[in-house]
Amino acid sequence: MDVKETENMTEEQKVEFFSQSAGKILSEIKKDIVGQEDVVEGTVIALVAGGNVLLEGVPGVGKTRLVRSLGRAFSLPFSRIQFTPDLMPADVTGTNVIEKDDNGKTSLRFQPGPIFSQIVLADEINRATPKTQSALLEAMQEHTVTVGGDSKKLDEPFFVLATQNPIEQDGTYPLPEAQVDRFMFKLLMGFPSIDELKAIVDMTQITMDETAEAVADADTLLKMREVAKGIPVIDDIKSYTMNLVAATHASTEVAPSFVSKYVRLGASPRAAQALITTAKVRALMKGRYNVSYNDINALAYPVLRHRIKLSFQAITEKLTTDDIIGMLITEISKKKSIPERIKDAFTKKD
Fold first, then answer.
1. Which of residues 58 and 135 earns the better pLDDT score?
2. One domain, residues 102 and 52
3. Is 123 helix (H, G, I), strand (E, B) or coil?
4. Which of 145, 242, 279, 293 has the smallest count of CB within 10 Å of its CB?
5. Closest CA to 67 of 54, 83, 49, 58
6. Is residue 190 domain-shared with residue 308, that is, in the same domain?
7. CATH (domain of 251)
8. Final residue in a domain of this structure, among 187, 221, 255
9. C-alpha–C-alpha distance, residues 113 and 91, integer Å
């Protein structure tokens, strides 16, 4: 289906266009990535929704390969920035260099850095100093880069996937809350199962190169984003989403009693924005033109897990952020403000 034809599509045709496009993209990425279905799907959802992803996992599980395959599937330029303690902000954004012409006259020319791409892998972002980490802030939030007082617009779509290693602490600089909050999702890339490990070894014995082929382009992605924005969200689901985010703060009236015990810092308003925005994309990927409660519940984990800070009590009881999110979903679903007609939505799977 031609992307240019979507202007006059019916709702059914929009769903078909979106789900078919997403299906092709996922199929191509899965040619290079074994398992990790939730991570692959979450990355595509965030990209279509216009957000950025923080990917956490031990070395060698395919984080870089995932981003390269994503760029190949979308036929978008890809760049990789290896963050190290000696990396400078100019190494990320670029800098002005002095040039001399044939007549001996000098002039300044901007030499763009690796941030001037459309899919950017910020590898091991927690190894760089806070000053260099902050070089990504403007690009992620405003999609612009300012060098020497001159702001330069980044090409759309623009997507940052940052990785960090959870097991290494020496020589790292933990991301501040203000920067972590700018990531739409935090996805966890776990170690593969035995069968998946065997499939990975078999795949790499044939070729180490990615085999994903281009099935979409920038125009397709932007049109998918436009279609997703038009998805309706009923007031009941909006209220449920707002309650779920507000419940992460012990000071709110909807917060369960365990929040004051286990949560030190709750989610920001960006969490509510991200939940609604990405739920629309997930609904279309599942072949629906409406957001369901399952969409909100499924996406609550990647949206909230980096925005909730646990208390010392939760850590001593060996609770994870995902445990707290699951408890919140269970408690908020019991609130009387949620109509009885949708109670069964919390047990159905799509």
1. 135
2. yes
3. strand
4. 242
5. 54
6. no
7. 1.10.8.80
8. 221
9. 6
